[in-house]
Amino acid sequence: MSTSTVVKKASALPKEILHKAYRLLHTARQMAHTYEENRAICSKYVHSTSKGHEAIQLASAFHLTEHDFAAPYYRDESLLLGLGIRPYELMLQLMAKKDDPFSGGRTYYNHPSLKREGFPIIPHQSSATGMQVIPATGMAHAIAYLESQGLKDKKTQSVVLCSLGDGSVTEGEVAEALQMAVLHPMPIVYLVQDNNWGISATGKEMRAMDAYEYAAGFKGLERMRIDGSDFASSYLGMKKAFDYARKNRKPILVHASCALLNHHTSGVRKEWYRSEADLAQHEANDPLQKLKNYLLEEAGFTAKELAAIEKEAAKWVADEYQLALQAPDPDWDDFDSHEFAPTPVQEEKGTRSPAKAEKVVMVDSALKAVDEIMKTYPEALFYGQDVGGQLGGVFREAANLAKKYGDSRVFNTPIQEAYIIGSTAGMSAVGAKPIVEIQFADYIWPGINQLVEELSKSCYLSKGKFPIQSLIRVPIGAYGGGGPYHSGSVESTLLNIRGIKVVYPSNAADMKGLMKAAFLDPNPVVMLEHKGLYWSKVPGTEEAKMPEPSEDYIIPLGKARIAQEASAEALEEGSSCLVITYGMGVYWAKSASKKWKGQVEILDLRTLNPIDWEMIKERVALHGKVLVLTEEPLLNSFAESLAGRISMHCFEQLDAPVMTQGAANLPAIPLNADLERMMLPTAEKVAATLEKLLSY
C-alpha cells in the first residue's frame, strides 16, 4: 500500500450496506435534530453529536467484528449506531438514566463501556482528548503479546480501532502511543477525524501539519487519506485499512476529512464563534446529501425508496426518545457501588518464615515474587525503563528476567511514563496481566494523567464492567544523597486519587506477600518500594532482611501488622504509646524506641489504601497516645490527614494530642547528604517526639 493513498469514490457497493448506511445516517441526523428541538431536556448534561462525521463513523463500524476492540471518542455517536446500539440506549446515557447500558448514568453521552456478545469490546475511557490513544494502543499491544505466546487465536485476526479528533493529535501522549505501536508492531487502526476545528481554534492555529503529514515521522506507520464526508469512499478506504492491520499485524493511521455541521458541544454553540462562510463551506460537504445523491444517481435507489427510509428512521428516533423520557433515574442508594472490583485475596496464606529458609533482602524478595508470578501466569508481562535486556533495572530488581522469559515478556520501553501506566488499561481489557515499573517516584508525574483519568475511574464509571488489573512498581524514598530527582515521596498525591490501591511494604516477607496479592487484585495497585530498604544497607534497617516466604505466601491488601509490640506491663501501667507508620518510618521508630524498652508499639500500615482502620482504632484505644510518622513533608500530608481522622473518631480514647512527624516542608530533597539529613526524619528526631508524647 502506498503511504500516500487517497481512496477514490466507489462505483458500486452492496445495496444492503448502502441501505443500512442511509438509514443510520438519517437516524443520527434525526437524533441531533431531536436533541436541538428539546434542548431544555437534552442539554441538561453536555453532549456532542456526530453531525457531519456520520459517513466515516458508519463506514468504520461496519468493518468491526465481535473479535475486535474499539476506543471511540466523544463525537462517535454514529459509530455506536453502526455497531448496532439502539438510539434508546444512547438516549439513556444522554439523560443519565438508570438503565444507561454503559455507566448507569455516571458518565457522558458517547462514552461507552461495552462488553456484549456479538459486539466488539469497548473498554471505558475518559473524554480527555487524545488520552484514549495510549490505552487503545495497550489493547493492541496485548493482542500482539498474547498471540506471540499462543494465548490468543491468531485466526480471529483481532484489531483495535482507535478514533480521535484532529485537535488531539498534538498531545504528547499520542506521540508516545504511535512510537510504541511501530516499535512493537501492533494491529491497530488510528482513525483521525479532521473537521479543522478544536473548540474555537482552527487547525492552522493549533498545528504545523495535519495528522497524515505528522504520521510520516513514525517509521513503520502506514497512512492513508480519506474523504470522510463520502460514505462510499470511506467504506472502501476503511476496508483497506482494516485489511492491512488484520493481515500484517501492524499499525495504520487514516486521516479522514470531515464536516462539522453542529455545535462543538451542546454547551459551546457554533453561532458563538463560526462565520456564515465557514458554516456554508462545511454544509457543502454534508455526508447525508452526498450519500443521497450517490444513491439516486449511481446506486439505483429511487426517491420513493429513500423517502421510506427517512420516514422509518424519523419514527424510530421519535419512538425511542419517548421511551427514554419515561425511563427511571438511577437509584440514589447505588451511587457508591463499584469503587473497586472484589479481590480474590481475602486472608493471609502460605508460610511467612519457612524452616531453614535463607534471609533475603527486599529487592531479591521482589525479584523472586515476579519470577514466580511469571512462571505461574503466562499472561503476565513486565516492562518499563531499563528493566529488560542485560541490566534488569537500575536496582537490579528484574535481574535475568528478560533472559529467562524472553524479550516479548520482559522488555524496555522508551522514556514514556504515560505509556507505561496508561497501556496497562488496554492490556487488562484484552486479558494480559501487566506488571510495570516507573524508575523513580519523582518520575511518575508524566503518568499521573493516565493514572487518574483512565485507570482510577474505569471500574466505577463502567459499573464494574472494566476494572483494570495493573501492578505499578515505584521505587521511592531518600537515602544517602539521591538528590532532588531521585529521592521524593509521593504517597499523599497518590492517595488523593480515588479508585487505586497503594501498597508500601517495609520488609522482605511483606514485599513478597503483598506483591502476589497486588498482582491478583483486579484493580490498579501502585506498589511503593523504598530504595533505602532494598538491600538493608542503611544503618538500622537490618531487620528488613527476612527469611524468604514460601511460594504460596500471600498477604491481603488492607491489613496492617504490629512490627513491634509494647509490653504487657507498660500497657497495664498506661506508660505505652503507639507509632503508626510505614516504609522507612518503621526503622526510625524502632531505633528511636530503644530508650523506652517495652513502651513503644509500632504499627506498620503496609497498605495505605485501603487502610486498616479497624486495627488503627483498636490499637489507639489500647494505648491512648499516638504518633503518626511519615517520610513525606508533613504539611497537608496523608500523615496529617490520618492524625486528624484519629483525633475526630478516637477522641474519647486519647490521653494526649495525636502527634505527627515528617520531613521539612520543602519542595525538594537537597543533594548534600547532611542537608538531606536535616530535612528528613531521623531516629534522633523521632526519639525527641516520643519523649514529649510519653510525658503526657
From TrEMBL:
UniProt superkingdom: Bacteria
Keyword annotations: Oxidoreductase, Thiamine pyrophosphate
Cofactor(s), names only, from the UniProt record: thiamine diphosphate
Pfam families: E1_dh, Transket_pyr, Transketolase_C
All residue ranges annotated as the Transketolase-like pyrimidine-binding domain in the record: 360-536
Classification via CDD domains: TPP_E1_PDC_ADC_BCADC, TPP_PYR_E1-PDHc-beta_like
SMART domains: Transket_pyr (SM00861)
InterPro entries membership: DH_E1, THDP-binding, Transketo_C/PFOR_II, Transketolase-like_Pyr-bd, Transketolase_C
Root EC class: oxidoreductase
Enzyme Commission number, as recorded: 1.2.4.4
Role, per record: E1 component of the 2-oxoglutarate dehydrogenase (OGDH) complex which catalyzes the decarboxylation of 2-oxoglutarate, the first step in the conversion of 2-oxoglutarate to succinyl-CoA and CO(2).
Annotated protein name in UniProt: 3-methyl-2-oxobutanoate dehydrogenase (2-methylpropanoyl-transferring)
Lineage, broadest ranks: Bacteria, Pseudomonadati, Bacteroidota, Cytophagia, Cytophagales
